[in-house]
């Protein structure tokens, strides 16, 4: 019963952490979802807000469910994002403008729902196509300024949409007169104050419940101000300070034969640019958000799997009347930091989104426009700040000007023009910066290429045997995102081919420059090297290249910058020689001990080959009580203690063993579970003989096995004698 409980409790604890993490992320899903619904169903579509809220939370529930079940990142949480909501709003706005221009009395709801669902389904199909054909990696070759321009433009569109949500009017030169009345200016001022409060508080802390506290505080402050001014809730709604709440959430699937037949199909060519924008922004957001989660959580995702899962999620969301979305960085990392590391986190968000289909009307009835409008202004301004202000430090003048140009073009002439200009800029950037596409001139290792330092024959023999621990790459040409990504793939495969590698040297002597977007690939290289305990050394790194890599966070305390290749190789060689000379001395000491035990140098060598070397730190648990007894340990250096449970959850030491002693031999022979916990009292070096290797010795070398059994019996007899003496003393 106790054993089952110990196995069950971690599962319950993990599930509880997932639910709590998902609950924290659900707070963002609810607040963002309400603001996105208001953004899309604004202006002429505001009477149909109930359908927009239903579409939002259906999309949130479906996207969160599918991504939670299928993502290569188990804790990933998906839903509509600010960028995808912005382009969806532009798509529906373009449709409404064209329909009302042709027929002011034309019904809008069903065509809008069909357009949202159709664009989402097409987006999902394209994402699946990218994932299946692996064409999604082509987006990684899109120049960084082009992507930044598209995402910066979505931030601007979110701000403009927020103004429309608050005032009911578009911000244009022709409509500036409508913004002159005091009520409208007061609403905009309150929304800007709300956005500033969000920036000064939640933007800097990112606490799980900071956002709902701020929003609830804003609602309470607004209603308190209404009360002090003598404005009733009904009057506040009439004036426009608060939303007119929908009577209930209305769900409708628009896929009826009559509705499809009456759909204005002739407008699709005019909407093609906005449809391409939905696809492009969703695909780009999926890839960049996935990369952001990889960096923040130190996990590596399967890119093709993420595209396929996002595609399937969008197909199902569109079929059920939702709109496009993708995996969310903020929600995923918030859940991860709150303890949610499993798929139950995303399923919790899906369940809460489904419950919001009943609770959303009540929330909107008490929600001042400036609260959600301020949230939208904050989200759009944050996006603009990221791509217009922060990106300036990472981009050259030409790249930065091209990013600004794309934002202006999209805002003025739409996404079609932005796409065309982006393609032109991408081709020009590639032609100017990638004259040569091969980034590796040659590779080498420590066996074939060494420093100029003359060494003794013993040292040379060591370097000949262990020179493979040093791997080097001589880089060349201009490194941009595409070539740097191929460099990462090469390094990743090389580390798999040479698991013995411990030093990776990059020679930048022939590198003419590094594009700002290449820093992410170097961050991936660093993560792969850290996973294998490989040290990175950078040689002949130019100041401009060092600045680009340092600004991205790639260069840190564990990355060495060495002026010359000869000095870098000498440093690596010295560390290899020092390490293996120490190991040789340790192995000699072990061989002497085993020879003393077994009476034969040959038997000692055989036993060493069957043991595995283990290093443990002070306080580290070697085995736990109740574990299977599948190995014994020879303690070459250090000290370990045998611990048993005491009162109040503490433990007590019943025996301590120092160097040249053994532990665990009884379990190896009798195959009974461990009766006590073994813990290192100081940093120790042990050699483990597992059951499989012991059986191999008994089969291949019966004489050695008999010697080991004799030694084990002698050790246990000595311990039994000591125990009898102790008992005799205690009985006096």
From TrEMBL:
- Mind telling me which Gene3D superfamilies this protein's record contains? Jelly Rolls, STAS domain
Q: Where is the Cyclic nucleotide-binding domain?
A: 616-715
- Keywords, comma-separated and alphabetical: Membrane, Transmembrane, Transmembrane helix
**Which CDD domains is this protein grouped with?**
CAP_ED, STAS_SulP_like_sulfate_transporter
Residue limits of the STAS domain? 473-572
Q: Which GO terms describe its cellular component?
A: membrane
Protein name (database record): Sulfate permease, SulP family
Q: Which organism is it from?
A: Bradyrhizobium lablabi
